[in-house]
Every structure is written in structure tokens, then in C-alpha cells.
Amino acid sequence: MPEGRGHHLLAVRNVTKRYGGVSALDDVSAEFRAGEIHAVLGENGAGKSTLMSVLSGFVAPSKGTVELDGHPIPLGRAFECKRIGIEMIHQHFTLVPDFTVAENLALSRLPGLLGASHVAERAAPSLEAAKRLGWELDPIEKVRNLAVGEQQRLEILKALGGDAQVLILDEPTAVLSPEEVDDLFRVMRRLRDEGKIVVLIAHKLAEVLAVADRVTVLRRGKLIATATRDEVDERTLAEWMVGELPTAAVNSPATVAGEGLKASDLRVKGDRKEDAVRGISFEVRRGEILGIGGVDGNGQIELAEAIAEVRALAAGKVTWEGTEGKPRTGYVPQDRQIDGLALGLSVEENLLIAGYRRETLTRGPFLRLKEIHRWAQGLIERFEIRTPSSKEPIASLSGGNQQKVVVSRTLDGEPELLVVVNPTRGLDIRATSYVHGKIREARDAGTAVVLFSTDLDELYALSDRRVFMSRGELIDDEGAISVVGGRR
Ligand SMILES: Nc1ncnc2c1ncn2[C@@H]1O[C@H](COP(=O)(O)OP(=O)(O)OP(=O)(O)O)[C@@H](O)[C@H]1O
């Protein structure tokens, strides 16, 4: 039996969290034990993030308590929770890119001046943890030069340096390559065996079954079940999550064909003026989905932005149907929080913002408000965007539901060229299968689709043809996937 088991118990007792009329959590009770990896599952908007935020003190519940070893934790006080050893590893990293590894590690400890000797002293516990886990990082490397997987390691090391007893990971595998996922799971098991409480939010059932000791499923704010790994399979979990079984989508071959986008010798600079895309040529025909795979950070984003015309080309040429003419382009960017959404505006305004439906929704300089409302309502229903109303601020939607807003308005614009980057990141099984279906529909109607995805399952399920990117270049040998990657 792992040492420390039974020593620490994080217990949620009858927790309810209401936002206006919505119960994000409804009388939820659950126990997270030392020496276990506990996965929390649920559809988009089920309440997973809210539960994690309650556990880590970022959100105070409307009712109920959380206890660590029988002592109530300070509710809604993240800093206090950190002090007693509860650490949340967020999906959006909280690192300072221009600081070194050691400086970032030092910063996470008590605030104060960062003299060179203090940095070394404060970073030491995290660097020791790094050594123990086989995650050696160069302390003087700038964080902006680290690959995404390394940045995540740094986030975890920050938490361990603070002597975390409870580690909460919010969808930690979303940004990782298969090898990095295996390595993260190795470390999670090791931390579990050291007696820590490890909690994770996850969407991929296969991953959950691979790593979790126990699983808790939420649906619409309610706890549906907690079970041990051996008591469940993918089918049961899926049923618990959605209340029914989703039907698997089948990939039908493309029907419409025609000349589409042709890119010749594209070169694109990254944000730091580095050569992010180094001479790439490819073609994607109308009625075809071209998948571009590879580990994050190998120039995919810069290439996607260049094709979608939101980043300038340094060199090279793009033609559409053999001419210099521009296609009607739909773009689903990588980071919805930064590029996709105006967080201060409502759901409806965010649907409208991309301007895809300008002809029907405006009259001269005026907005046709009733039309807009009806149209927005239609998208909300079809894409099952979970929101109390279309007037709700977008910031109050769950992550997956925000992603649905971006995807739905883009697909609704009936693009001739569709550029999507990880279109289903953060979406649950049902939403993923719906979005895949809509992308195939667009393809079947003659759209040329360029799918950038770091998710191999998605890449193989959706694309008609595949290439991979490594260090700014295309490689078409699929066997090369395991060697793709590393630093920029
Ligand atoms: N700050 C907020 N204001 C209003 N409503 C909110 C707020 N935060 C969450 N909600 C609502 O609470 C519900 C649960 O959201 P939560 O983010 O916990 O879901 P989730 O399971 O993490 O979903 P996802 O998989 O999409 O990230 C959703 O209906 C969401 O709209």
C-alpha cells in the first residue's frame, strides 16, 4: 500500500454553487483521498471547473463546506488554500515568459524582491522535485523558449516546490503529445504513490481509464456517480455523462471536388520574428479535409494564421481556384480567449462579431435586432450552447460552451475555405461528434478544409489526407510523428 494512504482526505460536503438562476453545482458531495488519482468527468457545462475552483479556493460555494482532514478549508480564498497545500494547475499557464525557469519557480513562493541569491534559494525545492521526477529543466532558460509540455512541467514543479498535498489538474493532457501524456501519467502515479491527492478534469475516456483510480461523473451540476476504475468502462462513463449513448460518426468520403487553395513556398515569421514557417507548399481541394498534425509549437499556428490572413506572409504565394482572388474564409483559432471572443460582450454579440452573416442581419448601417436574436437562438439550440439566454455575458459560459460559440458562428458563415485549429479542444464527446459532423457537412458542400490538430484521434477521424509539421516544415511520413517536436 502506498505510504501516506488514508492520511489526507479532501471532502466536499453538500456543495451548491448558483450563478443567478443556474446551479453550476447542486448539492454535490465527494471525497478525494490521499494515494489516489481521481478523475472528474462530465459534459461541457456539467460543473467540473466550478468544483475544482471551489476545491482550490477560487470560488466560494453558495452552500456547503470543503474539509481537509476534517478541518474546514477557507472557502473562496485561493491564497490561503495554496498555503495549506491545495494547488490548481490551470489550463492557461500562469508563467512569466521573459523570466527564467528559476525566476518563475521563485516567484511562485512568497512575494518579495528577487535578488539572485533569493532566486536560487526559493527555486531549490522545485528543482529538487524536478530531479526526483526525472524532469530536468535548465534553470537559466527563458520560459518563452520552452515547449508547451515543458511549461506544464514547470507549472507542476511550482506547485510541488510549495509542498502541495493536493494537486488539481484542469485538462492537463489537452496540450500534450502522446509521449508527453505518458510521461505526465508516470509522474501523476509517482505523486499518488508518495501519498498526494491528485485530482484531474478530463474529457478523453481512454485516458481516464488509463490513469484514474476512481472516477466521479457530474451532469448538469449534479453528482451522478463515483466509482473505482475497475467498476467502469468507456460505455458506462459515456452513459453517465450524457444520460444516453452518443452515436459514433462515420467518415464518409468527400463528394464535391474542385480546385481550392494552393500554397507555394510559404514563409511566415513568429511573434519574435523567428522563422516559424520555413518554406511550406501544399494544396487543399474543395470538398477535402487536409489534416495537419504535429506537436504544438512547430509553426502550425503561424501557418494557420497566414492562411486565414490574420498574419502576414514573409514570402511565398497563396492562390484560390487558380487566381489571386480571396475565398470566403472561416477561422477557428487556437486560443478562443485571446483571438476568438470578446469576453466583455454577450453570447449574441459574440456570435455576430465575426460578421459572417452581414447581409441578412444588417440593413445599411443598422442591425436587425429581431433577426439577430432569432438567428442566435437557432445557433444556440443547434449547437446545444448551454446558456440561460443569448444576452448572457460570454465570460460566464463554461469553456466548452465558449468554444461552441466560436465554432458555430464560423460554420454558419458557410465558408469556402475553413481553417480550424484544435476545433474540439475542451468539448465533450457529444459536442465533438456534432462539430466533426458539421465540418464534414461543410466539406461535402464543397468547402476546402484545413484542420490543424494536435489530437491524433481527431486527425485520423476527420481528415481525408494528412501531413505533419516539424520545426516549420512539412513532413508527410506518418511514422515521423514520434520524432516531431521539441523546442522551437
Ligand atoms: N462566473 C460565472 N457566471 C455565471 N455562470 C457561470 C459562471 N461560471 C460558470 N457558470 C455556469 O456554471 C455551469 C458550469 O460551468 P463549469 O465551467 O463548471 O462547467 P465545466 O463542466 O467545467 O464545463 P467545460 O467542460 O465546458 O469546461 C455552466 O452552465 C456555466 O455557464
TrEMBL record:
GO terms for molecular function: ATP binding; ATP hydrolysis activity. Gene3D superfamilies: P-loop containing nucleotide triphosphate hydrolases (3.40.50.300). The keyword Cell cycle does not apply. InterPro entries: AAA+_ATPase, ABC_carbohydrate_import_ATPase, ABC_transporter-like_ATP-bd, ABC_transporter-like_CS, P-loop_NTPase. PROSITE patterns: ABC_TRANSPORTER_1 (PS00211), ABC_TRANSPORTER_2 (PS50893). It holds the Pfam family ABC_tran. Keywords: ATP-binding, Nucleotide-binding, Repeat, Transport. The keyword Phosphoprotein does not apply. Transmembrane segments: none annotated. It comes from the Bacteria. Residues 10-245, 261-487 form the ABC transporter domain. This is ABC transporter-like protein. It comes from Fimbriimonas ginsengisoli Gsoil 348. The lineage of its organism: Bacteria, Bacillati, Armatimonadota, Fimbriimonadia, Fimbriimonadales.
